[in-house]
Amino acid sequence: MIQRLTARYYSLLILLSLLVLFVLFVLHVAVGSVAISPATVIAALFNQPVEPFQHIIIWDLRLPRALIALLVGAMFGLAGAILQVIMRNPLAEPEMTGATSGAVLFAVLWLALAPAQTAQPGPVLPFVALIGGLVGGALVYLLSWQGQHDPVLLVLTGVLISAVLRSAISIILLLRQEVIGTVLLWLIGSLNGLVWTQLDVLWPWALIALSLGLTCASLANVLQLGEENATSLGLNVPLTRLGLFFVAALLTASAVAIVGGITFLGLLAPHLARRAVGADARRLFPFSMLVGAGILLAADTLTQAISQPVSIPVGAALALLGVPFFLYLVWRRKP
Amino acid sequence: MMTPSLWQRRRGQLLLCAMGSIVFLIAVGLLALLPGTPNLSLPALWSIVNGGGTPLARLVVIQLRLPRLVLSMLAGAMLALSGGLLQGSLRNPLAGPELLGVSAGATMVVAAITIFHLPVLLIAIPWLALVGGLLGSSVVILTMRRMGDSVRLILTGAAMTALLNACVIIFMSLGTQNDLNILFLFLVGSLANRTWVHVQLVLPWALVAMPLALLCARPLNILQLGDDVARGLGLPVVRVRLLILVLSTALVAAVVAVCGPISFIALLAPHLARRLLKTSDARVILPYVTLLGAALLTAADLFAREAFAPQELPVGIWTTLVGGPFLLFLLRRRFGKSRGAP
Amino acid sequence: MKQHLLRVYLLLLVTMLAIAACGSPSAPASSRNGSGSTATTLTFTDATHTTVTLSKRPARIVCLVSLCEDILAQLGLSPVAVNDTFGQDPHFFGPRAKRFMTIGGTFFQPDVEDIARANPDLVIGLANVDDSLRSALQPIAPLYIMNPASYKDSIFYLKDIGRLTGRSAQANQAAQRFLHKLAAYRAKSPGNKSALLLYGSDVNFNIFTAASLPGSVLSRVTSYPWPAPGPGAPAASDHEPGAIPYSLEKILAVNPDVLFIASVGAGQPLSKQLASSPVWSRLKAVQTHQVYEVNPAYYIFGRGTESLSLALDDAMHKLYPDIFPTPLT
Question: Could you tell me which residue, A41 or C57, shows the higher pLDDT?
Answer without folding.
Answer: C57
